[in-house]
């Protein structure tokens, strides 16, 4: 069986190199909005962060998000707090889903009644 190539990405905050599926991608859309891209398929300029809130906070402290995404103006405090909440949700979802695997929940007929 052939070994699959695993893309490696670098965290913009910590500089750690990890597999793409262990990172969370931030994307600047054409509209200028910054969103979290869990699947890694959004079109736009992207930047990767490790799956820790410390990495996100470090990126905000160093003002790296603005540089990495080449934003015209820095994100406001409201935008950063909203993005931080979405980042926390993304961490939870990635931990739950464990990558791109589908989640199967088995339920018996008795449990449905």
Characterise the protein shown here.
The chain starts with 7 loop residues before the first strand and ends with a helix. The protein has four helices and five strands. It has helices spanning 53-62, 64-68, 77-97, 109-112; strands at 8-10, 17-19, 23-28, 34-37, 45-50. Helix 1 packs antiparallel against helix 3. The model has no long low-confidence stretch (mean pLDDT 88). With 113 residues, the protein is an alpha+beta fold. The chain is globular and about 55 Å long. A three-stranded antiparallel beta sheet has the order 4-3-5, with helices on one face. A two-stranded antiparallel ribbon has the order 1-2.
Quick structural gist:
The chain has 113 residues and is of the alpha+beta class. 35% of the residues lie in helices and 19% in strands. Strand 1 and strand 2 (17-19) form a beta hairpin.
């Amino acid at each position: 069986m052939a070994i699959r190539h695993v893309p490696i990405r670098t965290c913009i905050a910590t500089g750690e190199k990890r597999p793409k599926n262990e990172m969370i991608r931030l994307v600047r859309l054409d509209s200028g909005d910054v969103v979290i891209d869990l699947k890694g398929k959004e079109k736009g300029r992207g930047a990767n962060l490790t799956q820790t809130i410390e990495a996100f906070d470090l990126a905000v402290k160093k003002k790296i998000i603005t540089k990495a995404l080449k934003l015209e103006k820095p994100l406001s405090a409201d935008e950063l707090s909203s993005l931080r909440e979405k980042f926390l949700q993304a961490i939870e979802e990635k931990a739950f889903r464990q990558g791109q695997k589908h989640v199967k929940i088995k339920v018996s007929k008795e449990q449905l009644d």
